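Quick one, tokens below:
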């Protein structure tokens, strides 16, 4: 008989250890999930006052309601003429990962503002982005590269360490993490007004990831439950874990739907200009030279929800197999752009799920297969709702062919949505083999079959319209 598998240990924190500044700002825990261990730092040390002041002057509309440097098209000259290189002060914070992450957020905000400022004005004048700046000056590139090296982020704005998950504060710390108590720290457009579409976009991500502790716990419990079953023959813990995963994804999807009312499709394009990356974008045909850092141009992907860890966790746990296509290579490349501890956790989940054979165990009996189907259905539901956003906020509004992260806008998301639907089809077949059917399962099957056909038609239509 084959020996029963023993999972490799992985330390998911039960206590996020908020006071320990030497630990990375982002570490997976069952209390904070994928959010940072503590609320992001809002105030920079006095040594970085020039950076803070410049970021306050930057947004298209500043906190006081006036036109900022980006609106006037003056950020470039201010950076080049007035802004000091503060890199000498970084070393003082070498043991403070939390402060380094705040510095990373702020330098990456300044870098994206500087590089993409011309694109905002080109868009206003001609309706297309034109070219961004191709050289990042030393007063930004050197400190950005330094804080990125010390924190493990890429030296370009990332989703978690900067724009989305390290960009919120609590209006009243006593009230905790509720949407009405959140405000952004930095913004490109009007985001400092917490009722704006930019704020709504950023804070809805935070509001969703706030629900991730249960998803993390559910994933760990499913894996441990599978290990327990293989050793002891009792499947209850495995099923309980899957149920937790279903419940948490259901909550996350409910929050996702609130995006529509918090951030308007017609206003998305205004701040979106500043969250583009370099890789695969017409604005940076030759990449960007980071002066004083490297003579070879850099090419980083832009911010993207693809760098969020909740959906990849679900893909890895449920062993959703993606087709071997160049589109899937993009999905894998996105994995480099997340906090180191998130990456390690996601790899652990993937290898552990393979080791215990989550999918195989789930398809062995009708109750487990039904729970597994429900979990897949929540991942499909996420990707379907998300596809609706992409259609309404982006595809109907702009002909620019690549998303901020550099993926082809029409084909990439359907690649993954189809993969989930195909995984569900496999479960329907397994349930048939087990002679198990219920009206609920038949209903899901009908919905999913129709969605697959609708998606194919829609993608074909958009491709024909755009000649791609
Ligand atoms: C108005 C709202 C949104 C729009 C227009 C939008 C758009 C997009 C686009 C165009 C991509 C393609 C990747 C790229 O190259 O950049 C993407 C990827 C992704 N986004 Fe969003 N997004 C929205 C909200 C969200 C939210 C709230 C989340 C939640 C965390 C999220 C999670 C993801 C994920 C997980 C992917 C990777 C897709 C996959 O694995 O199939 N997005 N998004
Ligand atoms: N890829 C999206 C933007 C995007 O994905 C994103 C960017 C910054 C923060 C969160 C994001 N979430 C959604 O996927 C776009 O092309 O507009």
């Amino acid at each position: 008989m084959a020996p029963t598998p023993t999972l490799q240990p992985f330390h998911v924190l039960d206590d996020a250890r908020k006071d320990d500044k030497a630990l990375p700002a982002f570490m997976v825990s069952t209390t904070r999930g994928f959010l940072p261990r503590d609320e992001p730092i809002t105030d920079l040390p006095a040594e970085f006052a020039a950076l803070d002041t410049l970021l306050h002057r930057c947004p298209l509309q500043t906190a006081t309601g006036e036109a900022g440097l980006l609106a006037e098209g003056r950020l470039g000259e201010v950076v080049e003429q007035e802004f000091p290189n503060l890199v000498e002060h970084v070393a003082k914070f070498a043991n403070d990962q939390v402060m380094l992450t705040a510095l990373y957020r702020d330098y990456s905000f300044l870098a994206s503002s500087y590089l993409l400022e011309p694109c905002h004005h080109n868009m206003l004048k001609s309706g297309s982005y034109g070219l961004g700046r191709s050289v990042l000056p030393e007063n930004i590139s050197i400190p950005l590269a330094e804080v990125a090296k010390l924190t493990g982020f890429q030296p370009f704005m990332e989703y978690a360490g900067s724009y989305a998950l390290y960009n919120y504060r609590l209006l009243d710390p006593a009230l905790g993490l509720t949407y009405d108590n959140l405000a952004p720290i930095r913004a490109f457009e009007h985001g400092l007004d917490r009722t704006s579409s930019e704020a709504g976009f950023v804070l809805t991500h935070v509001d969703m990831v706030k629900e991730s502790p249960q998803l993390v716990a559910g994933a760990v419990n499913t894996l441990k439950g599978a290990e327990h079953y293989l050793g002891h023959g009792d499947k209850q813990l495995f099923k309980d874990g899957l149920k937790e995963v279903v419940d948490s994804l259901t909550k996350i999807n409910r929050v996702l739907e609130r995006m529509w009312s918090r951030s308007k499709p017609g206003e998305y394009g205004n701040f979106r200009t500043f969250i583009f990356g370099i890789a695969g974008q017409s604005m940076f045909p030759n990449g960007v030279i980071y002066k004083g850092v490297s003579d070879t141009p850099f090419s980083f992907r832009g911010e993207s929800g693809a760098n969020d860890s909740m959906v990849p966790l679900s893909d890895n746990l449920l062993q959703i197999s993606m087709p071997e296509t160049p589109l899937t290579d993009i999905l894998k490349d996105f994995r480099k752009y997340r906090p180191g501890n998130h990456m390690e956790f996601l790899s652990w989940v993937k290898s552990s799920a393979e080791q215990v054979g989550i999918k195989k165990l789930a398809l062995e009996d009708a109750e487990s297969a039904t729970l597994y189907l429900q979990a897949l259905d929540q991942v499909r539901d996420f990707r379907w709702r998300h596809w609706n956003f992409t259609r309404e906020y982006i595809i109907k509004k702009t002909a620019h062919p690549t998303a901020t992260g550099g993926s082809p806008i029409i084909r990439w998301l359907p690649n993954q949505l189809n993969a989930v639907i195909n995984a569900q089809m496999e479960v329907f077949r397994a349930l048939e083999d087990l002679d198990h059917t219920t009206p609920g399962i038949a209903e899901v099957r009908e919905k999913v079959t129709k969605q697959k056909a609708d998606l194919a038609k829609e993608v074909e239509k958009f491709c024909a319209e755009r000649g791609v």
